[in-house]
Amino acid sequence: MTEESEEALSRAQRRLLRRIYNGRTVPIIADGRPFLTYKEASRHLQALTPEDRETVYAEMKRQAQ
Question: How many CB atoms lie within 10 A of CB 41?
Answer without folding.
Answer: 25
